[in-house]
Amino acid sequence: MALKNIESVPGGPGETGSGLIQLITADGVRVPEPAYDALVADIDGAALQGLYEDMVVVRRIDSEATALQRQGELALWPPLLGQEAAQIGSGRALRSDDFVFSSYRENAVAYCRGVDLTDILRVWRGNASSGWDPYAINMATPQVIIGAQTLHATGYAMGILNDGDDAVAVTYFGDGATSQGDVNEAMVFAASFQAPVIFFCQNNHWAISEPVGLQAHVPIANRAPGFGIPSVRVDGNDVLACLAVTRQALARARSGGGPTFIEAVTYRMGPHTTADDPTRYRDANELEDWAAKDPLKRLEAHLGSLGLFDEAFTAAVKAKADAVAAELRAGCLGMAEPAPSDVFKHVYSTPNSWLDRQQDHYERYLSSFADSASSDGSS
Amino acid sequence: MSTLTFGRAINAGLRRAMDNDPKVILMGEDIGKLGGVFRITDGLQKDFGAHRVLDTPLAEAGIMGTAVGMAYRGYRPVVEIQFDGFIYPAFDQIVCQVAKIHYRTQGAVKMPITIRVPFGGGIGSPEHHSESPEAYFTHTSGLRVISPSNPQDAYTMIQQAISSDDPVLYFEPKRRYHVKGEVDEGSDPAASSMEKARVVTEGSDVTLVTYGPLVPTARDAAVAAGDDGVSVEVIDLRSLAPIDFETVEASVRKTGRLVITHEAAQSGGLGAEIAASITERCFYHLEHAPVRVTGFDIPYPYSKLEFHHLPDLDRILDGVDRVLGRPNSLSGLER
Predict the structure, then answer these.
(1) Which of A95, B3, B260, B315 is 20 to 30 A away from residue A266, measured at CA?
(2) What's the whole-model pTM score?
(3) What are the Transketolase-like pyrimidine-binding domain coordinates in residue numbering (chain B) (predicted)?
């Protein structure tokens, strides 16, 4: 037998059949789900419109940032196209004192946390190692090492327990990350200490070019019970269902019930990043299938059925998205350039004799050019 | 003053740090009821509770990654890595997270994590229990790396490490855990710096630089050299990153000759860094090229051969002969 990957198995990790929690179908029909309906009973028409607006805005942030990258203003951008419902539904469930540890694709979650729009772009423009003060919005800056942040969330949740607090740590990661040791160790620790942490896995079906079937041969959510962690598999393109399952997990964590694993089954409609080319590895038909399950379209249909999708509403949403995009672009173009000596800043919190010496030498080296420039000018 | 073993001195320092700051929390494998495989945390869980002395699952990346989260939450975790050779699963979290989060967040998030690592050989253990991995960490920006060589330093420096807002690797020379010494338990750790090297014995002919487990060996070598009419100045670095080069440089400007000894393998090791830095700083004061007396570039050997690998008194004296240009084991082989 030759060694090969078996990427697709019936009932495998990419399938979206039974067992998937769904409150709004791909056609926009609200369907009953007795275990979850009460959790979103407060979500009235205005609240649904709010969720829709959020999704439109973050999709617009995404397309504007992609445009900025194509125009050479950003070095790179990781689009979240297709994952708006998973991120907005979960993000809007959180309290301000909950703490998020995410990967680099959760810009919609950051938006929910109230991030300054310019701060989203700093790292991608190359102006900083990360964009914001984590304590200002209770969200760590994007983690690039795949899955590493799940341990940080678990440790943070252990600290919450020690403090006797009822906040919750929430960590976001993708299907690829579930193969990492860190993610599995995080689940061991979370179960062992019954830490108030939510593992929010966006199964977007692709880890760059590797399909989810290469990471797992069972639905990813099925793994968590083996660690002693209850799990739920939710339609990640259904914003209301994502809100409901996250609220359920938060309530469990706040009341001492420990961790929950949520698998939001969604789809990365775009490339991994702007440097990626998905046409090299995935079938256009697959993209079409998922386009039919688009998270925005289904909420449009649902709002329409409620008589809440009129021209005044759509115009207001468009105006908001345009304003956000304009602010994002202005923030990007107006970003202050870092000073050369900033390269040495914050490596340590107190002086370090090695680095101080290197900085001193480099600054004298740089100033030697200033001297020669001024002497040229005077001659 | 009380007389404590090296191990008890660390224990006393941990206890005092925990008394002074409720945010200090210990994490590691077998550190609770057992008190650690070397008993360094003996009695601390009983006195401070299981919420402050955490027996963790057996996963070093997990310990380090959750310590990062604890630090995010405002705690000052002290992590015990059971043996030097077990640190590698945590390497990614140390290098990519612990070391870089302060820089990444432009100073917003501090990582006041102390990583205690029993290190070095000479205890007859199997593979993975006798390693000297310090250079991996001294090469990583954002970390501070220290190694005490005696009970007083062990007591003081563990407290200084814990109170540091930067992450600190604290390398404990495990074969010296049972060495006894006087410890002033009332001393103020803030009154001194863990980054200042110490001149152990003064001398005028050769500067002998070392740290951690080889400090007593170097001191013995200096005595033996003295009997032979050679005056050796021994420097205990104490801090490996950053190294107090000012103290080393001042000594070499006086002696003109530098020998560096450590258990860790030679190539790319701290000896190379010290030799290069001192050569840059005071080349014209050197009478001879710096000499390294180190472990070989081999995996740590099985215990019946470990004393061929570890620098001992005679090999250090051979290095002293070499730096003096005297006939020695390598005469005729090396220019």
Answers:
(1) A95
(2) 0.96
(3) 4-179
